[in-house]
Structure formats: structure tokens, C-alpha cells
């Protein structure tokens, strides 16, 4: 096979299957081919299950050997070498030095018991043969290069002492430490705020040009890579659906799936009654040119308040050194009114206090000041015994359904447990009937009742988490980044479900998110937080049309334009 010297990575007929049991396999990648030219940025785009991450892990040699089948005829040439035929020892020398990878979740990739300086230095010692002093000096340079403030102090910090954006910058520093020829970035900004996301995207683009690297950028969000990619490869169900120059794919996509993927993302200038999903377009229920019915949003003078929060404050006591203590004010003097049947969007960067507000309202944190009046009673002033009756009326959907569902419980047990605790239903027979109805209501089959959380996709797990909340028949639902890590189509399904439930039951939502496009779609009012304080609050349309504060304008400017 002829290898073009201008092509750094050439993948041909890559087919990968996974063993389900002794007899059965599932084909995850179905004979895909693509090129990554030298000094270029190629975006590999698709929904979960499309095979994009599996393809990159095959290049890195990180797929589990016991359960992975790479079919004969598959090829991945890197800089003239056939990666799939290399011995494991040779592969390890190559990966980390000439090929490096940034993973989606830095806290799962960074070792919590070692300092970030030690972990970056380990790469330099192993692959570059540097001694400790030289490795530390180079680590300081790398931390400065990726924009970590005060590198001399941060080099001895542990991952848990850094923000999510800083952790991801540490991962990037580790990846570029040996100046690799190819950098693979697998969903590196999925759970980050829009401003941090833009900083990371700009950083990767800047480093790519500075070090003359090739970058393979993997994401489910086409709009995210519009400004940095030279070429775009769109995958679905293990196959390449479209490949071309970024300008062509974004300007005149040829494949129906690509056009649909671009169309499903919530838009700042459009608010349909229901968000279209992939199957709506591919199944012919909508056309891309069709103007969908619009939904009006906003507050009205006659709105009935369900929750009135005044001067909410929350502080934490932090240890400094052996004996020192410092008070950290996470939330400062926050006031708002939540109307019945309406949605309050809460936006801001990590550390702005938005999640702390939600957790404090549910008394998962103890408020250090202020009041939260619900039906004339202050939630913060109640005894634990009195508050028990209110627990079922205020529920929360957490960001990560993987962590919030007990892996040892079946879905049925997850749904029945809160009903038993709060004595909902006359007996288990009635509760089981209610659980089946809830599964149907959130779009899951009855058979899900007997299955475990790990058997479901991320979007399905979030539906289970919503069903668990609905067992309580709550009046207020706090949604804490509940759609931030989902594909655009699955995200649309969950948002449609939340909207249907609000229309049917009149629930009120406090919708916490860093995705301003999603907040624009679902919120009636938006509260912008920064460093624990409210900097701006207005009806959704008015705030997006005419933001008053510079911080709000900066958040809106960071939204991907693709």
C-alpha cells in the first residue's frame, strides 16, 4: 500500500468487534477509512455509539485485549509504521511520546494521590529520560504554556485542589510534554463551561500551530469544531457517513444525517414547541426547511410564586496548613422568586455558586443565611422532622446519572425505594404498577424494570433518574447540569420530556446549566451568577437580546457559533 508522506495517520478498513459472551460479538466499527494529514486538525464527529472513541482507542492500543476483536485487513499506519502489528512494548514507547491523548474526564485520568507536577514529570522521565530537576523545570514551563496561573504554586497541588478547567489543562500539558506528532483529544470540553470550553479550544488550536502537531478532535458537537477543524469526518453506527473540508461539511453537507445533526442543536433564535431529534428528520416526520410551531417564554404579573428565596448565603470553612482555617463564601445574598409551572435558568462558570444554590435549597448543604419560603414556611428554619414532609415535594436530578443511580439495584428497586420510604401507594403491588407507568412516561420499556443501570445508555439512565424523581410527584425539580454530557439528539429527547412533564403536572424547574443555548430554550427567566453573587436576572428573551452586564455578554460571546 502506497503511503502519502503528507499523511501522518492513515486508517484503512478498520473493523472492530467486542465479545459479548462466548458465542456472540457486536461490531462497533464497520470498515472505516480516514486520513489525518500532518500539521492539520481533523474532527471525528458522531453520537454516542458511533464508534469514534473506539477508533481512537484502537490507534492508541488502549482497547481491552480480552474482549476486543480487530478484524484481519484492518490497518492504521502512523508515520510509516503499522500500529496494529506492533508488539506491545513498541506500542507503549510510541504512545505518550509520538502519539498522545487527552481524555474526556480529567479526574478519571489524573491520579488523585500524586501531585500534578509529579504526574507531568513522570511522562518526561519515562519518555525523554530526564532526571528529576530537569523534569521539574520543564513541567513549570508546560504549566505556564497551557495557561495555569502561578505554576510555581500549582506544580505541587493535587488534582482535587484544581478546577475542572485547570485539570483539563494539566492533561493537555501531559499530552504535549514530549511534543507529539499526533494529539488525540477525546471530548475534552464536554462538561466544561462555555468560557472554559472556548479557552481550551483556543489553547489546543494555538498549541497545534506552535508545535506543528496533527490533532484528531473527537466530539458529539459539530458546532464546537467549526472554527478549528480543517477536515470533518461524520460517523454513525460504526460507519463514516460523510467526510470533507470543514467549510463544505458546515456550509453544504451532503449526507442527510450530517444536515440533521447540525439542525438538532438548540438555537438562540429559535424556540420550537418540541425540539426535533435525529429520527424526526430521518424518519420524515419533519423537513429541515419546515418552520416548527414556536413556544412563548417569560414571566407575567399574574404568575403564582411557589418558592421565594431571599438573601441566601452559604459559606464553607476551609483548612489552611496544619491549624489555619479560612471561610469561603460560596453563595452571597442570592434572592429570586420561582413561579409555579415556570422555569428559572441559573447560569455561570464553575465556582459561580449555581450548584451550591440548588443543593442548599434541598438542605443537602446547610444555609448560613437567608430564607426559602415554600407555602409560607421557611425550608431552612424547619426541624428535620418537619422537613421530612417537604422532601418529596422538592427533588433534584443530578448531572451524572452514572453516579446517582445505585449500581447494585435494579431499576425497579430504584423506583420502589422512595415510594416505600414516603409511603406512596397502598402496597407493593400498587407501587409496581406506578413504577411501570413511570417507565412508560419517560419512554422506557417495561422490561427496564428488571435490568441494572449499567445496561443502559447515558440518556436512558437520565430518564431513569427523572422517573425516580417523579415517584415523589414533586412540585419543584432542580435540574443540575442534567443534560450537559448528552448527545444533541438525546439531549433534545430529555428536554422534550421535561417540557412535557411541566405542561402536564405544572411543575416548576430550577434549571442549572453552563450551556446557554439549552437555557435559552427551556427557561422563562435567567439568573446569571458570578463568584457566588447574582450579577443579572431577566426574562430569557430580554437577557439574550440585551444583556446588561459585561460578564453576561462574555458568556454569550463564548457560545460556539457553528
Helices and strands, with pairings:
Layout: E1 7-19, E2 25-37, E3 41-45, H1 52-60, E4 68-70, E5 75-78, E6 81-82, H2 88-94, E7 99-102, H3 106-109, H4 116-128, H5 132-145, H6 151-154, H7 164-176, E8 182-186, H8 194-211, E9 214-219, E10 231-236, E11 239-245, H9 246-251, H10 256-263, H11 278-282, E12 305-320, E13 324-339, E14 343-347, H12 354-361, E15 369-374, E16 377-378, H13 384-391, E17 394-397, H14 401-404, H15 411-421, H16 428-441, H17 458-470, E18 476-480, H18 488-505, E19 508-512, H19 516-522, E20 525-530, E21 533-539, H20 540-545, H21 550-557
Parallel strand pairs: 3-9, 3-10, 7-8, 8-9, 14-19, 14-20, 17-18, 18-19
Antiparallel strand pairs: 1-2, 1-4, 1-5, 5-6, 10-11, 12-13, 12-15, 15-16, 20-21
Helix pairs in contact: 4-5, 4-7, 5-7, 7-8, 15-16, 16-17
Can you put this structure into words, describing what you see?
It is globular and about 75 Å long. The strands form four sheets. A six-stranded mixed β-sheet has the order 7-8-9-3-10-11, with helices on both faces. It contains 21 helices and 21 strands. Strand 15 and strand 16 (377-378) form a beta hairpin. The longest helix has 18 residues, at 194-211. The protein has two domains: 7-235, Rossmann fold (3-Layer(aba) Sandwich), CATH 3.40.50.300; 341-365 and 384-557, P-loop containing nucleotide triphosphate hydrolases (Rossmann fold), CATH 3.40.50.300. With 562 residues, it is an alpha/beta fold. Helix 4 (116-128) crosses helix 5 and helix 7 (164-176) runs parallel beside helix 8. Helices cover 35% and strands 25% of the residues.
Amino acid at each position: 500500500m502506497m503511503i502519502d508522506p503528507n499523511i501522518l495517520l492513515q486508517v484503512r478498513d478498520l473493523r472492530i468487534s467486542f465479545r459479548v459472551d462466548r458465542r456472540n460479538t457486536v461490531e462497533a466499527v464497520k470498515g472505516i477509512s480516514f486520513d489525518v494529514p500532518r500539521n492539520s486538525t481533523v474532527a471525528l464527529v458522531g453520537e454516542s455509539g458511533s464508534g469514534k472513541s473506539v477508533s481512537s482507542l484502537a490507534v492508541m492500543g488502549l482497547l481491552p485485549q480480552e474482549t476486543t476483536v480487530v478484524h484481519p485487513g484492518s490497518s492504521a499506519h502512523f508515520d510509516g509504521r503499522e500500529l496494529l502489528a506492533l508488539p506491545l512494548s513498541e506500542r507503549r514507547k510510541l504512545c505518550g511520546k509520538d502519539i498522545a491523548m487527552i481524555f474526556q474526564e480529567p479526574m478519571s485520568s489524573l491520579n488523585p494521590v500524586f501531585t500534578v507536577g509529579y504526574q507531568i514529570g513522570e511522562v518526561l522521565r519515562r519518555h525523554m529520560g530526564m532526571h528529576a530537576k530537569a523534569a521539574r523545570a520543564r513541567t513549570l514551563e508546560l504549566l505556564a504554556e497551557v495557561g495555569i496561573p502561578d505554576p510555581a504554586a500549582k506544580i505541587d497541588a493535587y488534582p482535587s485542589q484544581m478546577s475542572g478547567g485547570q485539570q483539563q489543562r494539566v492533561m493537555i500539558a501531559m499530552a504535549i510534554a514530549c511534543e507529539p506528532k499526533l494529539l488525540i483529544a477525546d471530548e475534552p470540553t464536554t462538561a466544561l463551561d462555555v468560557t472554559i470550553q472556548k479557552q481550551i479550544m483556543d489553547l489546543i488550536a494555538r498549541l497545534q500551530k506552535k508545535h506543528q502537531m496533527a490533532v484528531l478532535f473527537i466530539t458529539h458537537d459539530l458546532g464546537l469544531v467549526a472554527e478549528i477543524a480543517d477536515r470533518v469526518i461524520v460517523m454513525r453506527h460504526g460507519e463514516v457517513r460523510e467526510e470533507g473540508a470543514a467549510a463544505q461539511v458546515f456550509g453544504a453537507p451532503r449526507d442527510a444525517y450530517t444536515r440533521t445533526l447540525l439542525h438538532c442543536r438548540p438555537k438562540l433564535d429559535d424556540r420550537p414547541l418540541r425540539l426535533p431529534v435525529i429520527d424526526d428528520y430521518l424518519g420524515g416526520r419533519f423537513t429541515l426547511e419546515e418552520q416548527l410551531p414556536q413556544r412563548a417564554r417569560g414571566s407575567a404579573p399574574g404568575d403564582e410564586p411557589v418558592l421565594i428565596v431571599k438573601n441566601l448565603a452559604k459559606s464553607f470553612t476551609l483548612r489552611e496548613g496544619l491549624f489555619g482555617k479560612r471561610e469561603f463564601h460560596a453563595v452571597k445574598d442570592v434572592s429570586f422568586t420561582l413561579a409555579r409551572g415556570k422555569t428559572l435558568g441559573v447560569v455561570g462558570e464553575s465556582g459561580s455558586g449555581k450548584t451550591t444554590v440548588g443543593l442548599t435549597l434541598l438542605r443537602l448543604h446547610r444555609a448560613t443565611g437567608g430564607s426559602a419560603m415554600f407555602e409560607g414556611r421557611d425550608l431552612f428554619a424547619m426541624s428535620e422532622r418537619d422537613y421530612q414532609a417537604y422532601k418529596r415535594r422538592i427533588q433534584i436530578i443530578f448531572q451524572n446519572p452514572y453516579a446517582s443511580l445505585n449500581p447494585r439495584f435494579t431499576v425497579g428497586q430504584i423506583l420502589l425505594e422512595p415510594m416505600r420510604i414516603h409511603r406512596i401507594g397502598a402496597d407493593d403491588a400498587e407501587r409496581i404498577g406506578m413504577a411501570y407507568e413511570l417507565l412508560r412516561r419517560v419512554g422506557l420499556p417495561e422490561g427496564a424494570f428488571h435490568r441494572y443501570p449499567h445496561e443502559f445508555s447515558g440518556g436512558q439512565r437520565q430518564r431513569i433518574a427523572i422517573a425516580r424523581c417523579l415517584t415523589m410527584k414533586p412540585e419543584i425539580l432542580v435540574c443540575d447540569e442534567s443534560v450537559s454530557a448528552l448527545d444533541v439528539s438525546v439531549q433534545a429527547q430529555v428536554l422534550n420530556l421535561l417540557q412535557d412533564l411541566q405542561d402536564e403536572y405544572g411543575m416548576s424547574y430550577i434549571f442549572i446549566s453552563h450551556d446557554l443555548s439549552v437555557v435559552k430554550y427551556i427557561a422563562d427567566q435567567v439568573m446569571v451568577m458570578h463568584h457566588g453573587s447574582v450579577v443579572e436576572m431577566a426574562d430569557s428573551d430580554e437577557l439574550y437580546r440585551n444583556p446588561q452586564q459585561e460578564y453576561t455578554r462574555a458568556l454569550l460571546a463564548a457560545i460556539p457559533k457553528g
